[in-house]
Amino acid sequence: MKSLSIGFPNNNMDRIKVLFFGELAELTATSQLEVSGPLLLSELREELERNYPTLKDRVFQVAVNKRLATGKEQLNNGDEVAFLPPFAGG
């Protein structure tokens, strides 16, 4: 597994924007960061779980470019990935 370069946002389109919402933002102590691509979504998730071990036991959805992801997506610079906690509708 390659090590990812994780940094804080600077509105740079040659990075992947990673967003955290709700309790996930609390667990990571940030609502947004950036990583260098290209990489697979599964690689990003593994690296985030390594840097934020409390994510490992959490249930959450992931959206890539505002579409729910399957976990197999190829991420490229300029993409936006959102980590979404469970939510209820009604």
Radius of gyration: 12 Å
Give the tally of β-strands: 8
CATH fold category name = Ubiquitin-like (UB roll)
Q: Which geometry do the CA atoms define?
A: globular
Low-confidence stretches: none
Binned, the helix content reads 10-25%
Order of helices and strands: EEHEEHEEEE
**Most strands sheet:** 6 strands, mixed
Q: Give the spatial strand order of the biggest sheet.
A: 1-3-2-8-5-6
CATH homologous superfamily - what is it? Beta-grasp domain
| CATH class category name | Alpha Beta
Class based on secondary structure composition and strand pairing: alpha+beta
Count of helical regions: 2
Strand percentage lies at: 25-35%
What count of structural domains? 1
Mean pLDDT across all residues, rounded? 87
The CATH architecture comes to Roll
Cα end-to-end separation = 41 Å
Describe the structure.
This protein has 90 residues and is α+β, with helices and mostly antiparallel strands. 19% of the residues lie in helices and 29% in strands. The protein has one domain: Beta-grasp domain (Ubiquitin-like (UB roll), Roll). It has a 6-stranded mixed sheet with strand order 1-3-2-8-5-6. Strand 5 and strand 6 form a beta hairpin. The radius of gyration is 12 Å and the shape is globular. The mean pLDDT is 87.
Labels describing this entry:
single chain; 90 residues; alpha+beta; Ubiquitin-like (UB roll); six-stranded mixed sheet; two-stranded antiparallel ribbon; 2 helices; 19% helix; 29% strand; globular
